[in-house]
Amino acid sequence: MEEKPVWGSVCIVLSSILWGTALLYTQYVLDHGIKPKDLVSLKMFFGFLTLFLYLLLTDRNLLKTDHTCLKYSALMGFVCHALYNLFMFSAIDKTTIATTVTLLYTSPIFVMIISRVLFKEYITKAKLLALIFCIVGVYLTVTGGSIQELNFDKIGIIYGLAAGMAYGTMNIISKALVQSYNQLTILTYTLGFAFLFSLSFSDPLVIFQVDFNILVYLFVIMLGVLSTAVSYLFFIKGLFLGLESSKASIISTLEVPISVIGSYLVFNQRVTLWESLGIILVISSVMIMTQSAVRYNRAGKRLFHKNLKL
Predict the structure, then answer these.
(1) What does the domain layout of the chain look like in residue ranges?
(2) What is the C-alpha to C-alpha distance for residues 4 and 198, in angstroms, rounded to an integer?
(3) CA angle, 261 as apex, 260 and 267 as ends, to 5°?
């Protein structure tokens, strides 16, 4: 398939928007008695159910696959979803949310290094500049520029970095699979395995133990459908369209400023000057990567037309 990195960037941006806006209604669910670790299995279940039913009703052939796809889907479900969430919640428990989010978005560093080794993706000046903007921007957005917001517990930092690496691994494994298997097939089985693995630390039946609230049920389903099934589908589609893993990992950090802006618009939460600067830096990093994709696309077209003339 012809690579379309510009459209790949658009898909990653759309997935980031869905992830970022999900935080707005996630807080409502957590405030009504469901613990974060129990929300994991609920998200995975409704995400899997959505895609499974869609394929069952539209194209059952996409549910057929081979052992290789199942093996890597299980690996991705275990590392990129179950382990990622376990490390993330452990980091929050040992440190703070601000510290965990800041460590989590060190994932572009891991992705850039691994992508250079596995996929021969070049580490360009544009990528390094975008990476610096991205990390500093996330730090300022999350902490408001105050170092006191961070908790430097050693074990917590290890958990946070492990979460970042597990999160970044999704780029690597997905990139290896998307050229050989349908994106819907990969994601369906990945979420299915993720749900099974999450049962080791998460209890989805807890939703029946809290006071009945129709909004809680609605938001939990939305988390499974929109912020899990649809968002990850956009993400994998972006990689399928030829966007480099290292660029995708940087663009996906757009989730952080989107959640902050959403909190300001919906909950009237104050946004400080440092947080505003952080948002600008993250958006700038995304724009650098998008412009890089545009230049790559134009260069590819020029080469194509040159070959035609020859």
Answers:
(1) 5-309
(2) 35
(3) 85
